[in-house]
Each structure stands twice: as C-alpha cells, then as structure tokens.
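Hi F.,

I've been meaning to write this up properly since the lab meeting, where we talked about keeping a consistent format for the predictions we share between groups. The idea is simple: the sequence comes first, exactly as it goes in, then the structure tokens exactly as they come out, then a line or two of notes. No screenshots and no reformatting. I'm using this chain as the first example so we have something concrete to point to.
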Amino acid sequence: MKNTPFTEKHIALGAKMAEFAGYNMPISYTGINDEHAAVRKNAGVFDVSHMGEFVLKGENALDLIQRVTSNDAAKLKAGQAQYSCLPNDNGGIVDDLLVYCIEENKVYMLVVNASNIEKDWNWIQKHNTRQAEMHNISDKTCLLAIQGPNATKILQPLTSMDILNLKYYTFTKGVFAGVENVVVSATGYTGAGGVEIYFEDKDGAADKVWDAIFAVGGPQGLKPIGLGARDTLRLEMGFCLYGNDIDDTTSPMEAGLGWITKFTKEFTSKDIFAAQKAEGVERKLVGFEMIEKGIPRHGYEIKDYRGEAIGHVTSGTQSPSLGKAIGMGYVRTPYAAIGSEIFIKVRDKLLQAKVSKIPFS
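Output, unedited:
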C-alpha cells in the first residue's frame, strides 16, 4: 500500500485510515457529516495526491489528446482546463479526466483517477503513434484540494497569484507558501467552490505547504477532510465517480455526458456515440431520492411497481446537507423522466423512490 507525502499528517491528526486505489488514505477525521458541513459552510482540505498526472509535450501532443478524448481540447487556451473522458473501442469509458492547457498546442497536463493510472497511461501510449513526448509525473506530484465558500479567502495571503478571482475551470501558476512552480486551479469536485494545488514533492515542499495552509486556516475553522465526505459532497452535485457511475461498460451518452462528447473531430468510438445520439440509448444514469426510509447502496436493484428489474444503483448515501437519502443509478430510458416512480430493493423490501433533478436540492 502506497503513502502520500501527507500520510503521517493524517495519522497524527487521528484520521480513520483505509486503503483506497492502492493508497493509505484518510476516510474521516471527526466524522463524515461534520466534515461535509465544514466544506459546505466554510472550507476543508483534501489530500488527493493519489490522483495521476501526465504531461504531454510537443507538436503532436494536442493531436494525441484529440484522438483519445471525447471533448474538444483544441478550444483550450493557456490557463484553461476541461473535463473529458477517454473512450474505449466499444463505446465505454477507460476513465474520466481533466485536461489542462499549459501552453497552447505544445504542453498539456492530464489528471486521471488514482485506480486507473497504469491503465490510462498504457491506453494513451498505445495511441501515441506520432510520438508525442509523454511524462508520468504522478509519483512526484502533491495535490491538495481546498474546497468551500471561504477557501480562496483563507489561502490568498499565502500567494501573490490572484486566486480570489480565479474562474471555474481555469488555473494559474506561481509561488505559493514560498514554494515555486505551483499550479492553482478551480476545477473542484464538491460544488462548494475552492481550488486545487499541484506542486512537486521535493525539498520539504509538502510539509511547508500543508503547515502554511493550516497556520492561516486553522484559526478560521479550516479542517482536514477525508474521502468519506468527498463522496457525499460529489454525490449531492451528481458528479460521476469512476468505477461506480461510469466504467468500461457505460457510454458517456448513457451517463449524461453528451456535453463532453464533441463530434467535430475524430476520436475513439465516435461512430458508436453518434449512433446513440441519433437513435437514443436504452438506459440512462439518473439521480433519485428516497421517498420511503432506507439508504440506497451501490449494486442494489432498481425495479418498477410490478417488481420487474429496470436498472441498478451506482451510488447512494444519506445526504448530510439535505437530510434525505439520495442516489444515482442506471434505469431503462422510459423510467428516466424527472418525477418517475421507481423502487429500490433494500434487503428484501421494495422501497419507493422518485427520479429527481441533479444537482440534488
């Protein structure tokens, strides 16, 4: 099991630790509900250094990205980022990812899921027929996500970069807490605002950045947050988690990700997605809320009023902010309309639920 540069910090703070994507990660410190509320109302710090980062360089870098991703990276200017996915050959998803444009047409950073680092690297490398320069910088990159409505206000004194006015899906680069070459981006996974900080793990930079953040943030109520609250926060927003809501068998068109699937270029599985767009899909990923009391869990069956199987739950939880049980899952398309009555099989009972809008409210 791998450690991040912050693992000892988490243990010293009394975090409940567990294995996640091969890493020893903090699941919670003071409790998921408490940490969830801290991010929604103030600010919290997530260690997400387990994520993967690849740098692609050279005159063929953009061409490679265009061929392996579904979104149109040619639209990116330096300092902009984009949500996208890597389609496989069969209309499924190898991974979802972020594409950062460091230098237009020349230098890009791809941020991928921790559990898929090797898989993604091999997939992109397989398509690198024109020899774009590729660097896997995952093991030497620290990544902290400081999320919440007060996050940028708390962090601004640590840098001369203007992070208070950083627009969503843009980033800047400079000195942060005395550490050089730090990328600060606004591409958060919580829906609560805030930034992510990427920097190289060298010369004690991890300790320096962590300690500086909590020196200014601690008196303002900034808290360390575990992966448990990260999951409840993203689920309230209806953000997909790879391995739960999307995987090698789900298409972006089924998952409501048609907006990151651009047909203005050639890319893997383009023809499959175009046919799905034209003809429709047989199932769709929907959000739902429980009407009867019960917590939906990954893998639970979704049924209609007759008890016939119509799909399955991909993610579910008791929402700390909303005080009700919510979930996401795939259902047959006729049942995907907002307000549709569905039933979740919890143990041996069919509990009533209804399809609802995402983000949940």
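Notes:
The CA atoms of residues 190 and 234 lie 5 Å apart.
The two ends are 38 Å apart (CA to CA).

If this format works for you, I'll send the rest the same way.

G.
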